[in-house]
Amino acid sequence: MHLNSDVLLRVEGLKKVFRSGTSELQVFENLSFQVAQGEMVAIVGESGAGKSTLLHIVGTLDGPTAGDVYCASLRLSSLSEDRAAQFRNHEIGFMWQFHYLLPEFTALENVAMPLLVRGFFRQAAEKQASEWLRAVGLAERAQHRSGELSGGEQQRVALARALITQPKLLLADEPTGDLDSHTADGVFALLARLHRDCQLTSLIATHNFAFARRCDRVLRLQNGRIAEVAPEGLPA
Known about the structure:
This protein has helices spanning 51-58, 81-91, 107-118, 122-135, 151-163, 181-197, 209-212, and strands spanning 7-20, 23-36, 40-44, 66-71, 74-75, 92-95, 169-173, 201-205, 217-222, 225-229. The radius of gyration is 18 Å and the shape is globular. The relative contact order is 0.18. The model has no long low-confidence stretch (mean pLDDT 87). The protein is α/β, with parallel strands linked by helices. The chain has a single domain (38-60, 79-231), classed as Rossmann fold, CATH 3.40.50.300. It contains 7 helices and 10 strands. The protein starts with 6 loop residues before the first strand and ends in a 7-residue tail after the last strand. Strands 6-7-8-3-9-10 form a 6-stranded mixed sheet. A 4-stranded antiparallel sheet has the order 2-1-4-5, with helices on one face.
C-alpha cells in the first residue's frame, strides 16, 4: 500500500456462506485487507473463487455472513436498505462483464440515468452525460441505442455511466471479460486513464493477468482466503 495514504476501504474478517435448504457453501472466510485512496487494486482468482461475491458485498448489493466492510469510516453493514441504496448511488461506480445498458434508450440516456435517478433535470443530466461520452471517445455515438454499438463501445458507455456520479470507489467485475484481446486492451487502458484523471479508487476483479500486472497491487482469492501477490510474480 502507498505510504502516507488515507485508507478508503477496509475489509475485516469477512465471511460469506450461501445456504440452500440444509446445505451450506462457504465461499470465503476471514478476508481482511485495505485499499488506500487512489489505488487501483486487482483481485484475481479462478471462477467460483468468490471475486464477484466480494465485490457485491463491498458495493452493498449483498451482505456478509460475518465480518465488516468500512468505506471512508462508514460501516456498511449498519446501513438501512434505503441508506445503502443512497450510498451506492453516490459513492460507488459499478462496471460489470455484461454492460447492462437499457436497450430502449440511447447511449446518452443510459449514461444520464444515474443522475435522473438522483432527481436531476433531464437537460442537466444529459449535458453531463454528453461530456462523459466525449471522455470515453463516443461523442458521435450519443444517439445510438446499445444494440447499435459494438461490444467495446457498450463497455465504454457502461464506464461513462459508472463515473457520471463521480464516485469515490469504482468496482469493476471482469470488465473486459466478453471482449476480444485488442478491444479489451483499449477498454482497460481507458479505465486506467480515467482512474488516474478522476482520482478514483478502483477494485477490479479480472482473469487477465496482463491487466492485473498494470494495477498498483494484486490480491489473489484462493480456497476461501485472500493474499497479496507481487504483480510481477503473476504468470505471463
